[in-house]
Give the backbone structure.
Amino acid sequence: MALVTIAMGRLSQTFLLLLVMSLIGFIGVHSVGNPVFNIVNIETATAEDIRRATIALGLDQPVWRQYLLFIGNVVTGNFGTSYIYHLPAFGLVMSKLPATLELACIAMLVAAPSGIALGLLAGRRNRTFLDRTILKASVFALSVPSFWLSMMLILFGAILTGWFPSGGRGSTASMLGQEWSFLTWNGLWHLILPALALAIPNIALIARLARSGTIEVEQLDFTRFCRAKGLSPHRILFRHTLPNISVPIVTIIGLQFGGMLAFAVVVESIFAWPGVGKLLIDSIQLLDRPVVMATLTFISVAFVALNALVDLFYAVLDPRVRLSA
Amino acid sequence: MKAEIIRVLRRPPFGQALTLSKVVLAAYVLLALAAPAIAPQNPYDPLQIYGWEASSPPGTVGSGGFIYLLGTDGLGRDIVSSILYGLRISLFVSITSATVAALIGLTAGVSAAYFGKWVDVAIMRLVDLQLSLPTILIALIAIVTLGPGIDRIILALIIAQWATYARVVRGIALSETGKSYMDAAKLMRLPTSRIIFRHLLPNSIASAVTLIPIEIGHAVALEATLSFLGLGVPMDKPSLGSTVANGFQYLLTGQYWISLFPGLALFGLIASINLVGEDVRRRLDPRSRSI
Protein backbone atom coordinates (compact mmCIF):
# COMPACT_ATOMS: atom_id res chain seq x y z
CA MET A 1 0.00 0.00 0.00
CA ALA A 2 2.88 2.30 0.86
CA LEU A 3 4.08 1.75 -2.67
CA VAL A 4 0.88 3.16 -4.15
CA THR A 5 1.04 6.22 -1.86
CA ILE A 6 4.62 6.90 -2.91
CA ALA A 7 3.77 6.46 -6.58
CA MET A 8 0.81 8.81 -6.30
CA GLY A 9 2.93 11.38 -4.47
CA ARG A 10 5.59 11.26 -7.11
CA LEU A 11 3.06 11.44 -9.91
CA SER A 12 1.39 14.51 -8.41
CA GLN A 13 4.78 16.21 -7.97
CA THR A 14 5.52 15.58 -11.63
CA PHE A 15 2.21 17.01 -12.74
CA LEU A 16 2.83 20.08 -10.59
CA LEU A 17 6.14 20.45 -12.40
CA LEU A 18 4.44 20.06 -15.79
CA LEU A 19 2.10 22.84 -14.72
CA VAL A 20 5.02 25.13 -13.83
CA MET A 21 6.77 24.29 -17.09
CA SER A 22 3.64 25.01 -19.11
CA LEU A 23 3.45 28.37 -17.30
CA ILE A 24 7.07 29.17 -18.18
CA GLY A 25 6.44 28.08 -21.77
CA PHE A 26 3.28 30.16 -21.91
CA ILE A 27 5.02 33.31 -20.69
CA GLY A 28 7.98 32.49 -22.97
CA VAL A 29 5.79 32.34 -26.07
CA HIS A 30 4.22 35.67 -25.17
CA SER A 31 7.54 37.39 -24.49
CA VAL A 32 9.19 36.17 -27.72
CA GLY A 33 6.62 37.89 -29.89
CA ASN A 34 2.91 38.29 -30.48
CA PRO A 35 1.64 34.73 -31.12
CA VAL A 36 -0.91 36.08 -33.55
CA PHE A 37 1.89 36.32 -36.13
CA ASN A 38 2.25 32.55 -35.96
CA ILE A 39 -1.30 32.30 -37.25
CA VAL A 40 -1.81 35.12 -39.75
CA ASN A 41 0.34 35.66 -42.79
CA ILE A 42 2.43 38.75 -42.03
CA GLU A 43 2.88 39.70 -45.66
CA THR A 44 -0.77 39.67 -46.74
CA ALA A 45 -2.74 40.37 -43.55
CA THR A 46 -4.20 43.84 -43.03
CA ALA A 47 -4.36 45.56 -39.64
CA GLU A 48 -8.06 44.68 -39.51
CA ASP A 49 -7.33 40.96 -40.13
CA ILE A 50 -4.79 40.95 -37.33
CA ARG A 51 -7.22 42.65 -34.93
CA ARG A 52 -9.98 40.16 -35.72
CA ALA A 53 -7.63 37.18 -35.37
CA THR A 54 -6.42 38.54 -32.01
CA ILE A 55 -9.96 38.69 -30.67
CA ALA A 56 -10.99 35.35 -32.18
CA LEU A 57 -7.99 33.62 -30.54
CA GLY A 58 -8.59 35.33 -27.19
CA LEU A 59 -5.18 37.03 -27.39
CA ASP A 60 -6.67 40.38 -26.36
CA GLN A 61 -7.19 39.03 -22.82
CA PRO A 62 -4.52 39.50 -20.10
CA VAL A 63 -1.89 36.73 -20.08
CA TRP A 64 -2.96 35.27 -16.70
CA ARG A 65 -6.55 34.89 -17.87
CA GLN A 66 -5.39 33.24 -21.11
CA TYR A 67 -3.30 30.82 -19.05
CA LEU A 68 -6.15 29.90 -16.68
CA LEU A 69 -8.38 29.31 -19.69
CA PHE A 70 -5.71 27.14 -21.29
CA ILE A 71 -5.19 25.03 -18.12
CA GLY A 72 -8.95 24.64 -17.67
CA ASN A 73 -9.21 23.39 -21.23
CA VAL A 74 -6.28 20.98 -20.87
CA VAL A 75 -7.74 19.43 -17.71
CA THR A 76 -11.07 18.82 -19.43
CA GLY A 77 -9.33 17.53 -22.57
CA ASN A 78 -10.68 20.45 -24.56
CA PHE A 79 -7.95 21.77 -26.83
CA GLY A 80 -10.35 23.49 -29.17
CA THR A 81 -11.32 22.56 -32.71
CA SER A 82 -8.85 21.67 -35.43
CA TYR A 83 -8.50 24.50 -37.98
CA ILE A 84 -8.13 21.97 -40.77
CA TYR A 85 -10.37 18.99 -39.96
CA HIS A 86 -13.00 20.95 -38.00
CA LEU A 87 -13.12 18.19 -35.39
CA PRO A 88 -12.31 18.37 -31.66
CA ALA A 89 -8.49 18.28 -31.46
CA PHE A 90 -8.24 15.78 -28.60
CA GLY A 91 -10.72 13.40 -30.23
CA LEU A 92 -8.63 13.58 -33.41
CA VAL A 93 -5.50 12.56 -31.50
CA MET A 94 -7.34 9.67 -29.85
CA SER A 95 -8.64 8.45 -33.22
CA LYS A 96 -5.03 8.19 -34.48
CA LEU A 97 -3.77 6.42 -31.34
CA PRO A 98 -4.52 2.78 -32.30
CA ALA A 99 -2.28 3.02 -35.39
CA THR A 100 0.66 4.32 -33.33
CA LEU A 101 0.09 1.84 -30.50
CA GLU A 102 0.08 -1.18 -32.77
CA LEU A 103 3.22 0.03 -34.53
CA ALA A 104 5.06 0.52 -31.21
CA CYS A 105 3.83 -2.82 -29.81
CA ILE A 106 4.91 -4.80 -32.87
CA ALA A 107 8.30 -3.01 -32.87
CA MET A 108 8.83 -3.86 -29.19
CA LEU A 109 7.75 -7.48 -29.77
CA VAL A 110 10.53 -7.67 -32.36
CA ALA A 111 13.12 -5.66 -30.42
CA ALA A 112 12.90 -7.17 -26.92
CA PRO A 113 13.44 -10.89 -27.68
CA SER A 114 16.09 -10.31 -30.36
CA GLY A 115 17.90 -7.72 -28.27
CA ILE A 116 17.97 -9.98 -25.21
CA ALA A 117 19.09 -12.97 -27.28
CA LEU A 118 21.94 -11.02 -28.90
CA GLY A 119 22.97 -9.56 -25.55
CA LEU A 120 23.05 -12.93 -23.78
CA LEU A 121 25.01 -14.39 -26.67
CA ALA A 122 27.55 -11.56 -26.66
CA GLY A 123 27.87 -11.59 -22.88
CA ARG A 124 28.34 -15.36 -22.80
CA ARG A 125 31.07 -15.20 -25.46
CA ASN A 126 32.68 -12.14 -23.89
CA ARG A 127 35.77 -10.87 -25.73
CA THR A 128 35.33 -13.20 -28.70
CA PHE A 129 34.92 -12.22 -32.33
CA LEU A 130 31.13 -12.63 -32.04
CA ASP A 131 30.96 -10.35 -29.00
CA ARG A 132 32.99 -7.64 -30.68
CA THR A 133 30.89 -7.87 -33.84
CA ILE A 134 27.65 -7.48 -31.90
CA LEU A 135 29.09 -4.58 -29.90
CA LYS A 136 30.31 -2.77 -32.99
CA ALA A 137 27.05 -3.36 -34.82
CA SER A 138 25.21 -1.87 -31.85
CA VAL A 139 27.31 1.31 -31.98
CA PHE A 140 26.44 1.71 -35.65
CA ALA A 141 22.77 0.86 -35.13
CA LEU A 142 22.56 3.55 -32.45
CA SER A 143 24.31 6.07 -34.71
CA VAL A 144 21.95 5.75 -37.67
CA PRO A 145 19.51 8.66 -37.65
CA SER A 146 16.07 7.05 -37.59
CA PHE A 147 14.79 9.04 -40.56
CA TRP A 148 17.62 7.86 -42.77
CA LEU A 149 17.24 4.28 -41.56
CA SER A 150 13.57 4.46 -42.54
CA MET A 151 14.44 5.82 -45.98
CA MET A 152 17.02 3.12 -46.58
CA LEU A 153 14.49 0.46 -45.52
CA ILE A 154 12.13 1.91 -48.13
CA LEU A 155 14.90 2.02 -50.75
CA PHE A 156 16.09 -1.54 -50.21
CA GLY A 157 12.92 -3.19 -48.89
CA ALA A 158 10.42 -1.59 -51.22
CA ILE A 159 11.79 0.29 -54.23
CA LEU A 160 14.72 -1.86 -55.36
CA THR A 161 13.30 -5.27 -54.41
CA GLY A 162 9.57 -4.66 -54.31
CA TRP A 163 9.17 -7.02 -51.34
CA PHE A 164 7.25 -4.67 -49.09
CA PRO A 165 4.94 -1.68 -49.66
CA SER A 166 6.70 1.69 -49.26
CA GLY A 167 4.06 3.29 -47.07
CA GLY A 168 0.48 3.43 -45.87
CA ARG A 169 -1.41 1.22 -43.48
CA GLY A 170 -2.89 -1.38 -45.85
CA SER A 171 -6.20 -3.03 -45.13
CA THR A 172 -7.46 -3.11 -41.57
CA ALA A 173 -9.90 -5.22 -39.61
CA SER A 174 -12.01 -3.98 -36.78
CA MET A 175 -11.66 -5.09 -33.15
CA LEU A 176 -12.98 -3.39 -29.98
CA GLY A 177 -14.47 -0.66 -32.16
CA GLN A 178 -11.08 0.33 -33.63
CA GLU A 179 -9.38 -0.49 -36.91
CA TRP A 180 -6.18 -2.56 -36.64
CA SER A 181 -3.67 -3.45 -39.35
CA PHE A 182 -2.13 -6.47 -37.68
CA LEU A 183 -5.32 -8.48 -38.07
CA THR A 184 -5.01 -8.74 -41.85
CA TRP A 185 -2.15 -10.16 -43.91
CA ASN A 186 -1.98 -7.07 -46.04
CA GLY A 187 -1.90 -4.80 -42.99
CA LEU A 188 0.80 -6.89 -41.33
CA TRP A 189 2.81 -6.66 -44.54
CA HIS A 190 2.61 -2.86 -44.33
CA LEU A 191 3.67 -2.97 -40.68
CA ILE A 192 6.98 -4.76 -41.18
CA LEU A 193 9.19 -1.94 -42.52
CA PRO A 194 8.07 0.84 -40.13
CA ALA A 195 8.21 -1.58 -37.18
CA LEU A 196 11.77 -2.56 -38.18
CA ALA A 197 12.74 1.12 -38.38
CA LEU A 198 11.55 1.61 -34.81
CA ALA A 199 12.95 -1.72 -33.59
CA ILE A 200 16.56 -1.61 -34.86
CA PRO A 201 17.93 1.07 -32.47
CA ASN A 202 16.10 -0.63 -29.60
CA ILE A 203 17.55 -4.04 -30.45
CA ALA A 204 21.00 -2.43 -30.14
CA LEU A 205 20.18 -0.71 -26.86
CA ILE A 206 18.65 -3.81 -25.23
CA ALA A 207 21.50 -5.99 -26.51
CA ARG A 208 24.14 -3.72 -24.95
CA LEU A 209 22.32 -3.69 -21.64
CA ALA A 210 21.80 -7.46 -21.63
CA ARG A 211 25.44 -7.99 -22.55
CA SER A 212 26.90 -5.88 -19.75
CA GLY A 213 24.42 -7.43 -17.29
CA THR A 214 25.37 -10.95 -18.33
CA ILE A 215 29.09 -10.25 -17.98
CA GLU A 216 28.52 -8.80 -14.51
CA VAL A 217 26.29 -11.63 -13.27
CA GLU A 218 28.49 -14.40 -14.68
CA GLN A 219 31.35 -13.20 -12.46
CA LEU A 220 29.28 -13.47 -9.27
CA ASP A 221 29.68 -16.27 -6.77
CA PHE A 222 26.29 -17.86 -7.31
CA THR A 223 27.00 -18.47 -11.00
CA ARG A 224 30.27 -20.10 -10.08
CA PHE A 225 28.39 -22.20 -7.54
CA CYS A 226 25.86 -23.25 -10.17
CA ARG A 227 28.70 -24.31 -12.41
CA ALA A 228 30.35 -26.23 -9.58
CA LYS A 229 27.03 -27.94 -8.92
CA GLY A 230 27.20 -29.23 -12.49
CA LEU A 231 24.25 -27.36 -13.96
CA SER A 232 24.22 -27.14 -17.74
CA PRO A 233 25.29 -23.76 -19.20
CA HIS A 234 21.83 -23.51 -20.72
CA ARG A 235 20.09 -23.84 -17.40
CA ILE A 236 22.43 -21.33 -15.74
CA LEU A 237 21.79 -18.84 -18.53
CA PHE A 238 18.00 -19.06 -18.54
CA ARG A 239 17.19 -19.84 -14.92
CA HIS A 240 19.87 -17.84 -13.11
CA THR A 241 21.46 -15.19 -15.34
CA LEU A 242 18.33 -14.02 -17.16
CA PRO A 243 16.19 -13.34 -14.05
CA ASN A 244 19.09 -11.45 -12.50
CA ILE A 245 19.54 -9.10 -15.45
CA SER A 246 15.81 -8.63 -16.01
CA VAL A 247 15.32 -5.51 -13.88
CA PRO A 248 17.28 -3.02 -16.02
CA ILE A 249 15.96 -4.66 -19.17
CA VAL A 250 12.34 -4.32 -18.12
CA THR A 251 13.05 -0.70 -17.21
CA ILE A 252 14.57 0.11 -20.57
CA ILE A 253 11.75 -1.68 -22.40
CA GLY A 254 9.20 0.44 -20.53
CA LEU A 255 11.08 3.67 -21.15
CA GLN A 256 11.82 2.87 -24.79
CA PHE A 257 8.18 2.11 -25.38
CA GLY A 258 7.55 5.72 -24.51
CA GLY A 259 10.51 6.72 -26.66
CA MET A 260 8.87 4.89 -29.56
CA LEU A 261 5.81 7.11 -29.20
CA ALA A 262 8.16 10.06 -29.71
CA PHE A 263 10.21 8.53 -32.51
CA ALA A 264 7.00 7.44 -34.22
CA VAL A 265 6.85 11.11 -35.25
CA VAL A 266 9.73 10.51 -37.63
CA VAL A 267 8.97 6.97 -38.76
CA GLU A 268 5.26 7.58 -39.28
CA SER A 269 5.75 10.65 -41.42
CA ILE A 270 8.18 8.78 -43.67
CA PHE A 271 6.06 5.65 -44.05
CA ALA A 272 2.84 7.68 -44.34
CA TRP A 273 1.54 5.71 -41.35
CA PRO A 274 -1.61 7.51 -40.20
CA GLY A 275 -0.78 7.70 -36.48
CA VAL A 276 -0.30 10.35 -33.82
CA GLY A 277 3.21 11.26 -34.99
CA LYS A 278 2.20 11.93 -38.57
CA LEU A 279 -0.73 13.95 -37.28
CA LEU A 280 1.69 16.08 -35.23
CA ILE A 281 4.02 16.85 -38.14
CA ASP A 282 1.15 17.49 -40.55
CA SER A 283 -0.46 19.83 -38.02
CA ILE A 284 2.79 21.72 -37.42
CA GLN A 285 3.19 22.25 -41.14
CA LEU A 286 -0.44 23.33 -41.55
CA LEU A 287 -0.18 25.61 -38.46
CA ASP A 288 -3.06 23.69 -36.86
CA ARG A 289 -2.28 24.89 -33.32
CA PRO A 290 -5.02 23.14 -31.32
CA VAL A 291 -3.98 19.74 -32.69
CA VAL A 292 -0.26 20.47 -32.11
CA MET A 293 -0.95 21.41 -28.49
CA ALA A 294 -3.21 18.39 -27.94
CA THR A 295 -0.67 15.96 -29.44
CA LEU A 296 2.35 17.30 -27.56
CA THR A 297 0.45 17.42 -24.26
CA PHE A 298 -0.85 13.90 -24.79
CA ILE A 299 2.61 12.43 -25.59
CA SER A 300 4.23 14.22 -22.58
CA VAL A 301 1.56 13.13 -20.10
CA ALA A 302 1.54 9.56 -21.44
CA PHE A 303 5.30 9.47 -21.05
CA VAL A 304 5.28 10.78 -17.48
CA ALA A 305 2.61 8.24 -16.52
CA LEU A 306 4.61 5.46 -18.17
CA ASN A 307 7.69 6.50 -16.23
CA ALA A 308 5.84 6.32 -12.93
CA LEU A 309 4.56 2.89 -13.89
CA VAL A 310 8.07 1.66 -14.68
CA ASP A 311 9.33 2.97 -11.31
CA LEU A 312 6.56 1.07 -9.56
CA PHE A 313 7.21 -2.10 -11.52
CA TYR A 314 10.91 -1.81 -10.72
CA ALA A 315 10.17 -1.90 -6.99
CA VAL A 316 7.85 -4.87 -7.37
CA LEU A 317 10.40 -6.79 -9.43
CA ASP A 318 13.41 -6.09 -7.20
CA PRO A 319 12.74 -5.98 -3.47
CA ARG A 320 16.11 -4.32 -2.89
CA VAL A 321 14.85 -1.14 -4.53
CA ARG A 322 13.31 1.23 -2.03
CA LEU A 323 11.30 4.05 -3.47
CA SER A 324 11.34 7.47 -1.92
CA ALA A 325 8.91 10.25 -2.65
CA MET B 1 54.01 5.97 -13.84
CA LYS B 2 54.39 8.13 -16.92
CA ALA B 3 55.17 5.13 -19.11
CA GLU B 4 52.08 3.40 -17.74
CA ILE B 5 49.86 6.37 -18.62
CA ILE B 6 51.29 6.56 -22.13
CA ARG B 7 50.76 2.82 -22.58
CA VAL B 8 47.13 3.10 -21.49
CA LEU B 9 46.57 6.09 -23.73
CA ARG B 10 48.02 4.33 -26.73
CA ARG B 11 45.99 1.16 -26.27
CA PRO B 12 43.03 1.46 -28.64
CA PRO B 13 39.96 -0.06 -26.93
CA PHE B 14 38.10 -0.35 -30.19
CA GLY B 15 41.05 -1.29 -32.34
CA GLN B 16 41.02 -0.33 -35.97
CA ALA B 17 37.45 0.98 -35.86
CA LEU B 18 38.56 3.68 -33.44
CA THR B 19 41.67 4.65 -35.38
CA LEU B 20 39.59 4.78 -38.53
CA SER B 21 36.89 6.86 -36.86
CA LYS B 22 39.48 9.40 -35.68
CA VAL B 23 40.83 9.76 -39.21
CA VAL B 24 37.29 10.03 -40.59
CA LEU B 25 36.30 12.63 -38.01
CA ALA B 26 39.42 14.71 -38.70
CA ALA B 27 38.63 14.49 -42.42
CA TYR B 28 35.06 15.68 -41.82
CA VAL B 29 36.25 18.70 -39.85
CA LEU B 30 38.85 19.60 -42.48
CA LEU B 31 36.33 19.19 -45.30
CA ALA B 32 33.83 21.39 -43.48
CA LEU B 33 36.44 24.10 -42.90
CA ALA B 34 37.70 23.98 -46.47
CA ALA B 35 34.26 23.65 -48.10
CA PRO B 36 34.20 27.03 -49.94
CA ALA B 37 37.67 26.35 -51.36
CA ILE B 38 37.19 22.75 -52.50
CA ALA B 39 33.48 22.48 -53.35
CA PRO B 40 33.03 22.49 -57.14
CA GLN B 41 29.91 24.67 -56.78
CA ASN B 42 28.49 27.17 -54.29
CA PRO B 43 25.00 25.71 -53.65
CA TYR B 44 23.82 29.05 -52.18
CA ASP B 45 24.59 30.94 -55.39
CA PRO B 46 21.72 30.63 -57.91
CA LEU B 47 24.03 31.78 -60.74
CA GLN B 48 26.13 28.61 -60.41
CA ILE B 49 23.14 26.28 -60.53
CA TYR B 50 21.65 25.06 -63.79
CA GLY B 51 17.99 24.20 -63.30
CA TRP B 52 17.79 22.01 -66.40
CA GLU B 53 20.36 19.67 -64.91
CA ALA B 54 18.11 18.82 -61.94
CA SER B 55 18.16 15.18 -60.75
CA SER B 56 21.13 14.19 -62.93
CA PRO B 57 22.49 10.77 -61.95
CA PRO B 58 26.07 10.46 -60.57
CA GLY B 59 28.77 10.94 -63.18
CA THR B 60 26.91 13.41 -65.38
CA VAL B 61 29.11 16.15 -66.88
CA GLY B 62 27.62 19.50 -65.91
CA SER B 63 27.52 22.87 -67.68
CA GLY B 64 29.74 24.29 -64.95
CA GLY B 65 32.65 22.36 -66.43
CA PHE B 66 32.93 19.70 -63.73
CA ILE B 67 31.49 16.21 -63.28
CA TYR B 68 28.60 15.72 -60.84
CA LEU B 69 30.33 12.87 -58.98
CA LEU B 70 27.28 12.09 -56.85
CA GLY B 71 24.66 13.60 -59.15
CA THR B 72 22.45 16.64 -58.56
CA ASP B 73 19.34 17.21 -56.45
CA GLY B 74 15.85 18.24 -57.53
CA LEU B 75 16.92 21.88 -57.95
CA GLY B 76 20.11 21.12 -59.90
CA ARG B 77 22.51 21.58 -56.97
CA ASP B 78 25.63 19.40 -57.00
CA ILE B 79 25.34 16.76 -54.25
CA VAL B 80 29.07 16.85 -53.39
CA SER B 81 28.89 20.61 -52.81
CA SER B 82 25.62 20.31 -50.88
CA ILE B 83 27.23 17.75 -48.56
CA LEU B 84 30.29 19.95 -47.97
CA TYR B 85 28.25 23.08 -47.22
CA GLY B 86 25.64 21.13 -45.24
CA LEU B 87 28.43 19.69 -43.11
CA ARG B 88 29.42 23.22 -42.09
CA ILE B 89 25.91 24.04 -40.92
CA SER B 90 25.44 20.71 -39.11
CA LEU B 91 28.76 21.02 -37.28
CA PHE B 92 28.28 24.72 -36.46
CA VAL B 93 24.81 24.16 -35.00
CA SER B 94 25.76 21.09 -32.98
CA ILE B 95 29.07 22.35 -31.60
CA THR B 96 27.57 25.70 -30.60
CA SER B 97 24.55 24.17 -28.92
CA ALA B 98 26.48 21.43 -27.11
CA THR B 99 28.99 23.97 -25.76
CA VAL B 100 26.40 26.50 -24.58
CA ALA B 101 24.27 23.70 -23.12
CA ALA B 102 27.36 22.53 -21.21
CA LEU B 103 27.96 26.04 -19.80
CA ILE B 104 24.34 26.39 -18.68
CA GLY B 105 24.11 22.84 -17.35
CA LEU B 106 27.37 23.15 -15.41
CA THR B 107 26.32 26.43 -13.79
CA ALA B 108 22.90 25.03 -12.91
CA GLY B 109 24.31 21.78 -11.50
CA VAL B 110 26.98 23.49 -9.39
CA SER B 111 24.48 26.07 -8.11
CA ALA B 112 22.05 23.29 -7.15
CA ALA B 113 24.77 21.52 -5.19
CA TYR B 114 26.14 24.68 -3.53
CA PHE B 115 22.89 26.36 -2.47
CA GLY B 116 20.98 23.14 -1.69
CA LYS B 117 17.49 23.45 -0.21
CA TRP B 118 14.82 24.79 -2.54
CA VAL B 119 17.27 25.84 -5.29
CA ASP B 120 18.44 22.24 -5.48
CA VAL B 121 14.90 20.84 -5.43
CA ALA B 122 13.71 23.26 -8.12
CA ILE B 123 16.63 22.70 -10.49
CA MET B 124 16.88 18.94 -10.03
CA ARG B 125 13.15 18.28 -10.37
CA LEU B 126 13.25 20.12 -13.69
CA VAL B 127 16.31 18.09 -14.68
CA ASP B 128 14.61 14.83 -13.65
CA LEU B 129 11.54 15.66 -15.68
CA GLN B 130 13.61 16.61 -18.73
CA LEU B 131 15.73 13.49 -18.56
CA SER B 132 12.69 11.28 -18.21
CA LEU B 133 11.32 12.59 -21.51
CA PRO B 134 13.03 11.66 -24.81
CA THR B 135 15.32 14.49 -26.02
CA ILE B 136 13.64 14.45 -29.42
CA LEU B 137 10.30 15.23 -27.75
CA ILE B 138 11.76 18.17 -25.79
CA ALA B 139 13.47 19.50 -28.90
CA LEU B 140 10.18 19.17 -30.80
CA ILE B 141 8.23 21.04 -28.12
CA ALA B 142 10.91 23.75 -28.00
CA ILE B 143 11.10 24.25 -31.77
CA VAL B 144 7.30 24.31 -32.12
CA THR B 145 7.17 26.98 -29.42
CA LEU B 146 10.11 29.00 -30.75
CA GLY B 147 9.47 28.85 -34.49
CA PRO B 148 11.93 28.09 -37.33
CA GLY B 149 15.42 29.51 -37.95
CA ILE B 150 19.05 28.62 -37.26
CA ASP B 151 19.24 30.62 -34.00
CA ARG B 152 15.98 29.01 -32.83
CA ILE B 153 17.18 25.49 -33.53
CA ILE B 154 20.38 26.14 -31.58
CA LEU B 155 18.24 27.38 -28.69
CA ALA B 156 15.97 24.33 -28.94
CA LEU B 157 18.98 21.98 -28.81
CA ILE B 158 20.35 23.84 -25.77
CA ILE B 159 17.00 23.47 -24.02
CA ALA B 160 16.97 19.77 -24.89
CA GLN B 161 20.53 19.06 -23.73
CA TRP B 162 21.48 21.19 -20.69
CA ALA B 163 19.88 18.80 -18.19
CA THR B 164 22.34 15.96 -18.85
CA TYR B 165 25.29 18.12 -17.78
CA ALA B 166 23.44 19.47 -14.75
CA ARG B 167 22.70 15.94 -13.49
CA VAL B 168 26.31 14.76 -13.87
CA VAL B 169 27.99 17.82 -12.39
CA ARG B 170 25.59 18.17 -9.47
CA GLY B 171 26.46 14.73 -8.08
CA ILE B 172 30.18 15.48 -8.13
CA ALA B 173 29.82 19.04 -6.84
CA LEU B 174 27.77 17.70 -3.94
CA SER B 175 30.67 15.56 -2.76
CA GLU B 176 33.08 18.50 -3.28
CA THR B 177 31.06 20.92 -1.11
CA GLY B 178 31.93 18.86 1.98
CA LYS B 179 35.70 19.11 1.46
CA SER B 180 37.90 21.34 3.58
CA TYR B 181 38.99 23.68 0.78
CA MET B 182 35.36 24.71 0.43
CA ASP B 183 35.16 25.41 4.16
CA ALA B 184 38.37 27.44 3.86
CA ALA B 185 36.92 29.46 0.98
CA LYS B 186 33.76 30.15 2.94
CA LEU B 187 35.74 31.11 6.09
CA MET B 188 37.74 33.58 4.04
CA ARG B 189 34.41 35.20 3.19
CA LEU B 190 35.02 35.04 -0.52
CA PRO B 191 32.09 36.26 -2.59
CA THR B 192 29.66 33.44 -3.43
CA SER B 193 30.19 33.79 -7.17
CA ARG B 194 33.95 33.47 -6.66
CA ILE B 195 33.54 30.35 -4.53
CA ILE B 196 31.28 28.77 -7.13
CA PHE B 197 33.16 29.69 -10.30
CA ARG B 198 36.78 29.67 -9.06
CA HIS B 199 36.72 26.85 -6.53
CA LEU B 200 33.72 24.54 -6.84
CA LEU B 201 33.26 24.54 -10.62
CA PRO B 202 36.85 23.73 -11.66
CA ASN B 203 36.89 20.79 -9.27
CA SER B 204 33.59 19.36 -10.46
CA ILE B 205 33.57 19.72 -14.23
CA ALA B 206 35.90 16.91 -15.39
CA SER B 207 33.17 14.28 -15.82
CA ALA B 208 30.74 16.67 -17.44
CA VAL B 209 33.25 18.02 -19.93
CA THR B 210 33.97 14.52 -21.20
CA LEU B 211 30.28 14.35 -22.13
CA ILE B 212 30.60 17.18 -24.66
CA PRO B 213 31.82 15.11 -27.65
CA ILE B 214 29.03 12.55 -27.17
CA GLU B 215 26.48 15.33 -26.84
CA ILE B 216 27.77 16.94 -30.04
CA GLY B 217 26.99 13.63 -31.76
CA HIS B 218 23.47 13.67 -30.30
CA ALA B 219 23.06 17.29 -31.40
CA VAL B 220 24.02 16.42 -34.99
CA ALA B 221 21.39 13.68 -35.04
CA LEU B 222 18.74 15.85 -33.37
CA GLU B 223 19.33 18.79 -35.70
CA ALA B 224 19.21 16.48 -38.73
CA THR B 225 15.95 14.94 -37.51
CA LEU B 226 14.31 18.31 -36.89
CA SER B 227 15.53 19.60 -40.25
CA PHE B 228 14.27 16.45 -41.91
CA LEU B 229 10.83 17.08 -40.43
CA GLY B 230 10.97 20.58 -41.90
CA LEU B 231 11.28 22.22 -38.46
CA GLY B 232 14.99 22.98 -38.49
CA VAL B 233 17.31 25.10 -40.59
CA PRO B 234 15.76 27.10 -43.47
CA MET B 235 15.58 25.40 -46.88
CA ASP B 236 17.86 27.87 -48.71
CA LYS B 237 20.80 27.00 -46.44
CA PRO B 238 20.33 23.25 -45.98
CA SER B 239 22.16 21.18 -43.35
CA LEU B 240 22.91 17.51 -44.00
CA GLY B 241 19.51 16.59 -42.55
CA SER B 242 17.54 18.90 -44.81
CA THR B 243 19.59 17.77 -47.83
CA VAL B 244 18.46 14.20 -47.09
CA ALA B 245 14.90 15.46 -46.65
CA ASN B 246 15.04 17.21 -50.04
CA GLY B 247 15.76 13.86 -51.64
CA PHE B 248 12.96 11.97 -49.96
CA GLN B 249 10.28 12.73 -52.55
CA TYR B 250 12.68 11.69 -55.32
CA LEU B 251 13.52 8.42 -53.55
CA LEU B 252 10.08 7.01 -54.36
CA THR B 253 10.67 7.59 -58.09
CA GLY B 254 14.04 5.84 -57.99
CA GLN B 255 16.40 8.87 -57.83
CA TYR B 256 18.12 7.37 -54.83
CA TRP B 257 21.36 9.42 -54.96
CA ILE B 258 19.79 12.65 -53.69
CA SER B 259 19.14 11.17 -50.24
CA LEU B 260 21.50 8.17 -50.17
CA PHE B 261 24.85 10.02 -50.28
CA PRO B 262 24.10 12.93 -47.92
CA GLY B 263 22.59 10.34 -45.56
CA LEU B 264 25.75 8.21 -45.73
CA ALA B 265 27.81 11.33 -44.96
CA LEU B 266 25.58 12.10 -41.99
CA PHE B 267 25.71 8.53 -40.71
CA GLY B 268 29.50 8.47 -40.98
CA LEU B 269 29.73 11.77 -39.12
CA ILE B 270 27.51 10.64 -36.24
CA ALA B 271 29.16 7.21 -36.00
CA SER B 272 32.68 8.66 -35.91
CA ILE B 273 31.74 11.31 -33.32
CA ASN B 274 30.09 8.62 -31.17
CA LEU B 275 33.11 6.29 -31.36
CA VAL B 276 35.64 9.03 -30.63
CA GLY B 277 33.37 10.55 -27.98
CA GLU B 278 32.98 7.28 -26.09
CA ASP B 279 36.73 6.79 -26.27
CA VAL B 280 37.44 10.28 -24.90
CA ARG B 281 35.03 9.63 -22.07
CA ARG B 282 36.51 6.23 -21.27
CA ARG B 283 40.02 7.65 -21.10
CA LEU B 284 39.37 10.83 -19.17
CA ASP B 285 36.65 9.64 -16.83
CA PRO B 286 37.36 6.38 -14.97
CA ARG B 287 33.82 6.40 -13.56
CA SER B 288 32.33 5.66 -16.98
CA ARG B 289 34.50 2.61 -17.61
CA SER B 290 32.12 0.16 -15.97
CA ILE B 291 29.40 0.96 -18.48
